[in-house]
Amino acid sequence: MAASSWVSLHPHFSKNAFVHTFGRVSRGLHAKPSVTEAVYPPITPSPTAKSKSAKKRREEAYHNEVRSAATVQEKLRLLTKLQRRKYVLYPQTFALNADKWYQHFTKTAYLPGLPDALYLGGDAKASEGTSKASPVAGQHTSAVIDSDVSNELRSLVCNALLQEKYYMEKRKPFLHREQEHLVAPFLVNLVSGVTTALAKYNPVLNMSNLDFGPQVNFYWMRGETTVPRGHRRNRVDPIRFQIDDKPHSQLRLPKQLPEFMPLEETGFADVPVINLAPDLLPMFKRQYDNNIFIGSKVADPCCYGHTQFHLVGDRLRRDKLIKSNLADQIEVGLRANAIASLFAWTGAQAMYQGGCILNCRNILLSRTVTIHQVT
Questions:
Q1: Residues 239 and 278: beta-carbon distance below 8 Å
Q2: pLDDT digits (tens, 9 = 90+) for 54-81
Q3: Which of 27, 41, 163, 351 has the fewest other C-beta atoms within 10 Å?
Q4: Which residues neighbour 355 within 8 Å (Cβ) at sequence distance 6 or greater?
Q5: Residues 341 and 102 sit within 8 Å (Cβ to Cβ)
Q6: Residue 306 burial (C-beta neighbours within 10 Å; 0-12, 13-18, 19+)
């Protein structure tokens, strides 16, 4: 009779060997993985490719370059170095209903009237607020200012009118030259005289700079369009705009004006949205240098605006518009002029101060647009 016996087929399959091997495997699973450095650089799209990722890379590189600019001059150079055809927005236009278009292009809300605190005969709350305000050195009370300043300003206006109409004995001007020949010198004398007269009541005017015939430019982008033809056909480009304004005179200050009233109390007016091309206004594209300028250099300490004075040309005549049943377009043209000019001056000041001031605080300006008729 044969006897049976148990023989291990492999020494590693024994019980003790199996426990030892499993322990080594378990310790290897919980160990920290080894970090290996990349041998090749990361894969990035070519900066000259036509793909969306390449375009995004170019935009990020451009934005980083603008943010890292050391000086304001360098930042303005980077913002205006790309020369493309752009729509030229003229502040003084005769297009119908141009104010709605200008509000859409500049993203500006229009609120008619002045704040209650700026009216001469304000309510009791406004008068109490002005009386409780701390008086500035060299500033009189509101009652004294109302009586004295009105008489002084009236004499200044009368003297300026007599200077241009009686003492100078000017001849009749040529066609469409009346404003330049008669009204512009009158406004120069009036603005300089009023600024000097009011400086003793408002000390801020003593530090201001008065510019005559300055140049104000602003360049910005709003919306997108597709290039219709050319070697860049079907490319998506931003719609570019340029304002070249020439006010009659302007006042600049070394510090920002205080708020007339908080922005939350004014109520947010709706901005008109126009889904038509700017060519239908009509507006036309031009090709020349992109300019951002407030009327002075960047190093000038008076880099904040106070007031602008604009003189409408002889072509805008109230009597002709009334005869053509376009009496409502008189105020429309003046409103469009105010919107475009103030937007250009405000935007240029923001760029002079680093380009981010519009997101930080408000810029307060005032503007006077008049049709002078000296008779």
A1: yes
A2: 988 998 999 899 888 888 889 999 989 8
A3: 41
A4: 66, 75, 79
A5: no
A6: buried
